[in-house]
Amino acid sequence: MNRKDTHEHLRYTILAAMFAAMIYVMTAFVHIPTQQGYIHIGDGIIFLAAALLPAPYAMGAAAVGAGLSDYLSGFAIWVLPTVIIKAATAAVFTNGRQTIVNRRNLIACAVAWLICVGGYYISGVVLALLSGGEIHSALAAALADIPTNIMQCVGSTALYIFLGFALDKMGFKSMLSGKRPAGRKNSK
């Protein structure tokens, strides 16, 4: 690995760690308890990380931040499903566009909703069955949590769009890459 690649890897690793911490905070401390867990807006930070970082780094930040939140919030049984679901959620976004909020990433939000709602539905059923529940009660309990998962997706998408537009207006992606934002002149 040459010096430039090493520097870039270090920069993305540090940014991924910072995003993992933000995801953890927005998930663990800004949440509302529900039947099977809690709803939060931490996914909005996952979407943001995925629009700014290359996929492996964004997926790692999502898995670590959300997984730690479940574990440290007393929902350890949900850590494995969360790690898989949140990494998959981050994987559908792209950081390859000039802006954070773009048509490709807005479509990714819809795909992320399907991954989140579907993933937690399936996980809820499997976890209920593994803990000795009957199939009908497992299906009903997981089904009852769908509206709260949808609310979580809506809130997280709103946060992503709000922060993304604000950061796009500042030229944040250009600043993050070390380039000057388009339209800005040097003040010297």
Q: Could you explain the architecture of this structure?
A:
The chain has 188 residues and is mostly helical. 72% of the residues lie in helices and 3% in strands. The protein has a two-stranded antiparallel ribbon with strand order 1-2. The mean pLDDT is 92.
List keywords for this structure.
188 residues; 2 strands; elongated; mainly alpha
Task: Please provide the ordered H/E string of secondary-structure elements.
Answer: HEEHHHHHHH
Low-confidence stretches: none
Neighbour order of strands in the largest sheet:
1-2
Largest sheet: 2 strands, antiparallel
Average pLDDT: 92
Query: Which percent band covers the strand fraction?
Result: under 5%
What oligomerization state is this entry in? single chain
Total of helices: 8
What share of residues is helical?
A: over 70%
Please provide the count of β strands: 2
Kindly name the structural category.
mainly alpha
Brief overview, please?
72% of the residues lie in helices and 3% in strands.
Question: Helices, strands, pairings?
Answer:
Layout: H1 3-28, E1 31-33, E2 38-40, H2 42-52, H3 55-72, H4 79-91, H5 103-130, H6 135-144, H7 146-170, H8 172-176
Antiparallel strand pairs: 1-2
